[in-house]
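Section handout 9: paired folding examples.
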Amino acid sequence: MATKETKSSRQARIAEMRRAEQARERRNKIAAVTVSVAIVAGLVGVGAYLLNKESDDKDKQQAQKAADAKATIAGEKDWDPKKLGRNHVTKTVSYPMKPPVGGDHDQVWMNCGGAVYKKPIPDMNAVHSLEHGSVWVTYNDKAPAADVQKLSDKVSKTPYSLMSPYQDQTGAIMLSAWGKQVTVTSADDPRVNQFFAKYVQGAQTPEPGAACTGGLDQK
């Protein structure tokens, strides 16, 4: 009889151990699922935050561009567009300002789809690019190399813009559009962004939407 009770007791203990093991496995599964849900929820939350942040950043950038486009640019020089000739000519034009901001010009424009020229380019072709709504960034040997590089990076990413050295200009760094021009102190001068926002295909453009590729290329 004692032997039977011992076997029965042993079986009971084994059954109890199995129940405990099963309960432990259930708890582990529940914990794993809970952790997984928390991780997924966290990832969703992070993703939503990043999307919202990206959207907010884009909204801020657009708002800043809109503000720059309306801003008055300190030190800007203006010429009456009605007094700037727009004829296509073959005879060399002597422009009253350097770099020129408008006037009669060559029938072929300089390519200006974010073109960075390492050598001087012809005035008469560059003026034609301005007529198409481009911004022309020029610099002389007084401009710091770091500023030249920053401006090169900006121009190369901006359709309807071009850049070239121009030794005869009075300022180290100058920006020109049709009838508009400003001298800036550095590539980080806030007027650079203002000028681009306002005059790349801006209201001053005599021929908005005209081609900036398929013209003269000189690199």
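Moving on to protein 2 of 2.
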Amino acid sequence: MKPNLEHINKAFESKARLGIMSILMVNDSVDFTTIKNLLDLTDGNLASHSRNLEELGYIKSNKQFIGRKPNTRFSITAEGREAFISHIRALEDFLKSQNL
């Protein structure tokens, strides 16, 4: 029997996107610098991956200024939470099916 990978979400195949989503699943919102430091990403790398997740509707960003410094905070959307939970369940099901 071949394992069913139908519910594996390609949006989360990247280690960076998986990390971003994991961080946002357990926090109400997290700023750009914190995510960048936690995942050891460059500014450009985080900007690219977060933009992709935002375009998919999985996360949203809130840009503001604190004093004179720009601050971007990210949070997960209801759609993003549902998609990520579905992805994790699909991974768990796949791993369970590998019991030989």
